[in-house]
Design goal:
single chain; 107 residues; alpha/beta; 3-stranded parallel β-sheet; 4 helices; 3 strands
């Protein structure tokens, strides 16, 4: 979540062969990896993403996070993008959606 999302994006792009899926939540792609070449590594290894943010998140609003989603989709990554009735916080609904997605990915 938040800065952890930056690590999630980065580590998944650096070692996509290690991941089946990743869930960067309410965060960003660092400038060093914010390009189609890095993001395409996820598609090359079929890494699925669950990307989400709060509708009123003042740090990572849906428009900003949506740009990362579009970058990933444009590179061929399978992305599920959701927004939640939340600010920069992990609500019960938000956490439940992440758990549900992770469980479906692990089946």
């Amino acid at each position: 979540f938040s800065q952890g999302a930056a690590w999630t994006w980065t580590v998944a792009m650096e070692s996509p062969d290690v991941f089946h899926c990743a869930a960067p939540l309410s965060g960003w792609i660092p400038r060093s990896h914010n390009d189609s070449t890095h993001v395409a590594r996820l598609a090359d290894q079929n890494v699925n993403l669950f990307v989400a943010t709060g509708e009123t998140d003042s740090y990572f609003n849906p428009e900003r996070v949506g740009e990362y989603v579009e970058l990933a989709k444009g590179a061929g990554v399978n992305v599920e993008f959701q927004t939640f009735d939340a600010g920069h916080e992990l609500t019960d609904d938000y956490a439940a959606a992440v758990r549900e997605w992770l469980q479906s990915e692990l089946e």
